[in-house]
Design brief:
Length: 275
């Protein structure tokens, strides 16, 4: 039997100007936020007739996501290092963004935006939770370009050999590995399509506040939990754990947002003036 595999040897640098590198990963973040802004604009115009609050919503979402993702990585994956080298928290070029922290930051950003504009909390959160899976999928493609966050060894024909990854060279070569970045991205794209249908086709965000954010975020981290079973460990401390850090952090988010989904479907979050 001939084992087929994908040889992944893409330069992560998209282009360089005077020694300053623009990476595909950064480009994917930019594309993700532009895409989110376009969809949010469409939703605002659909409901309000204009998108005058788009800039404010965008800034709260952007800052909440990046700050939360960075702090999440520092606190969840290497707290000892960052407690002794706190200035390194600001060194984004060194890498290290955690999606669980980004989610928490996004929720806080939605709350601050709602408070500033005197909106129900679930108005921004439900709409952000619609675009978040697509953004997450695009960013995972960025991880693929970076040859990072891949899976364990596999003999499946779509396994990847990440030739530019030092981690792959040391721990897995010459075996191919699961391209878990692609698996995760596909899951997120499907979730995005489904919640878009619930919003545009069923008007669920207006009828049942909280239902879409509960469902979307719960599904994202259910998918994440199962992908983690074939994902390579993110740090040495995970070696002896029954569940890795990604799974441990996913469980409370799944439980909390499943409850929010159920409560939303039962109408608990409908503003009193609309009941």
């Amino acid at each position: 039997m001939i084992n087929l595999f994908v040889t992944w040897d893409l330069d992560p640098v998209f282009f360089s100007i005077f020694g300053f590198e623009i990476r595909y990963y950064s480009l994917m973040w930019m594309i993700a936020f532009i895409f989110c802004a376009l969809i949010m604009s469409k939703m605002m115009k659909r409901e309000w007739g204009d998108d005058k609050l788009l800039d404010s919503a965008f800034m709260y979402s952007l800052l909440g996501t990046i700050i939360g993702a960075r702090l999440g990585h520092c606190l969840f994956y290497d707290p000892a290092f960052y407690f002794t080298h706190p200035i390194q928290i600001l060194n984004l070029r060194a890498g290290g963004l955690a999606s669980h922290g980004g989610t928490l930051g996004l929720i806080i950003g939605a709350w601050l935006f709602a408070r500033k504009n005197k909106l129900p909390f679930f108005w921004p959160l439900d709409r952000i939770a619609i675009v978040a899976p697509m953004a997450g999928g695009i960013i995972r493609i960025g991880n693929l370009f970076n040859s990072e966050i891949f899976g364990t060894a596999t003999d499946l024909s779509w396994g990847f050999k990440f030739l530019r990854s030092r981690e792959w060279q040391v721990n897995f070569a010459p075996d191919a590995c699961h391209p878990t970045q692609i698996y995760e991205a596909l899951i997120y794209f499907v979730i995005f399509a489904f919640v878009c249908y619930l919003y545009f086709g069923k008007d669920l965000a207006r009828k049942k506040p909280g239902a879409i954010s509960g469902l979307s975020i719960a599904l994202i981290f259910i998918g994440r939990f199962f992908i983690e079973t074939i994902k390579n460990v993110q740090g040495p401390f995970e070696e002896g754990l029954t569940l890795n850090m990604g799974q441990i952090l996913s469980i409370p988010l799944v439980l909390i947002f499943t409850v929010i989904f159920i409560m939303g479907m039962r109408g608990y979050f409908i503003p009193k003036k609309n009941k």
